[in-house]
Amino acid sequence: MRLRSIRQQSASCLPQISGHVITPESSDYESARQVINHAYDRHPAVIVRCASPSDAARTLDFGQRHGLPLAVLSGGHSAAGYGVCDGGAVIDLSGMKQVEVNADKRLALVQAGALVGEVDAATQRFGLATTLGACPTVGIGGLTLGGGMGTLMPKYGAACVNVQSAQVVTVDGRQIEASRGSNPDLFWAIRGGGGNFGVATAFEYRLHPVSNVLAGTLVYPAGPIPELLHACLKITDAAPDEINLVAMIVPGQQGPTFLILVGYSGQPGAGNDLLKPLRAPLRPLQDTVNVMSYLESQASGFPPPARPLSYFTTSLFLPQLSEPVIADITSATKDAPQKFRVMISCLHGAVTRVPIQ
To answer: What is the phi-psi region of residue 326: left when phi exceeds 0, alpha when psi lies from -120 to 50, beta otherwise?
Structure first.
């Protein structure tokens, strides 16, 4: 009875919402409630596909007045399923995708429903980019609020470090700016603190000149995981800020297979020199590393899955990959389930030089 009442009352919000109100009776409800990770099969009482920050504020108020669980959806990639909830209200920002680039000031104002690939396409028209994830279908909202790792972070820092300001709807429905000069405490909190301080509806990012890069994947035969991890660490320990390496261990027919995802934003010749220890004597089975546009490298990093996925994930930060840790990774991947993936991002450069504020 309560859910029926909520649905009826949400329908009465239609004149006030400039976007689209979706209830379980709506024809697009099933598609609207789905997120990338199908391990989360949740059924909200109402989904509001916002067209403006005012829509987000009204939905937030509606949820609070009725004591509803609230979720905020951007791209729907949250590995923890934060973008959807059971029996509650979903503030769906996926329709808010506007990207405005000021090439002269090297700034981009991006609504929170935009996807990584959409932002990259807009900024690359001017030969500019900011740190964003390497999967083009990830929403920039959750990515940025969680910190935002990407191939440019050794050179330019994490996504949240490049945020100059944000438009935020607070818990009391106010639409405010968070920046160093306006609500600085909130600005500090949202840059890596997650979506717990309000609903961020837009971000202003600092942009950097980025054109062609050296990028691709090195694929190795099953077996020498410790040796390969040591090789990655040796490079990143003394590497310039231009290089980013991500090690990945995935299932293979002959056992766990080791991959290295390479991104280098400096001169290609210098990048290839850095990669020599990973090419000989280690001898990858496949080497796709070559010069390409930054946009192409971003699109090829983590292509969208061909079918719905159900998965669980966890992550942790370690001060170093010690010998016991490497031994544990090697042992765990040998005894892993049929489907698994271990990703190891070697943090160095600008992302490690953030001053305490």
So the answer is: alpha
pLDDT tens digits, one per residue of 118-169: 999 999 999 999 999 989 999 999 999 999 999 999 999 999 999 999 999 9
Question: How distant, in Å, are the alpha carbons of 181, 224, 264, 342 from that of 184?
Answer: 6, 48, 34, 37
Stated as kind and residue range, the H or E segment containing 166 is strand 163-169
Distance (Å, rounded) from C-alpha 70 to C-alpha 159? 25
| Adjacent-strand bridge partners of 280 | none
329-335: Cβ within 8 A, 24+ apart: 329/225, 329/229, 329/249, 330/225, 330/226, 333/225, 333/249, 333/256, 334/255, 334/256
Whose CA is closest to 126, among 113, 111, 98, 107? 107
The model's pTM is: 0.93
- Predicted pLDDT at 1: 47
Place of tokens 């979506």: 195
Mean pLDDT of 309-313: 84
pLDDT of 11-36, one tens digit each?
555 458 999 999 999 999 999 999 99
Q: What is the pLDDT of residue 124?
A: 97
275 near 41, Cβ under 8 Å?
no
Residue 21 near residue 13 (C-beta atoms within 8 A): yes
Q: What is the pLDDT of residue 193?
A: 85
* Residues 6+ positions from 61 with CB-CB distance below 8 Å: 173
139 burial (CB, 10 Å; 0-12 / 13-18 / 19+) is buried
CA gap 251, 334 in Å, rounded: 9
In the predicted model, what is the mean pLDDT of residues 223-249?
91
Q: What is the mean pLDDT of residues 181-192?
A: 94
Q: How far apart are CA 40 and CA 218, in angstroms?
A: 33
Average pLDDT, the chain: 91
121 CB neighbour count, 10 Å cutoff: 15
Q: Which residue has the higher pLDDT, 208 or 307?
A: 208
Element (H, E) at 220: strand 212-220
Phi, psi of 157 (to 5 degrees): 85, 170
Helix (H) or strand (E) holding 217: strand 212-220
Residue 312 has pLDDT above 90, yes or no: no
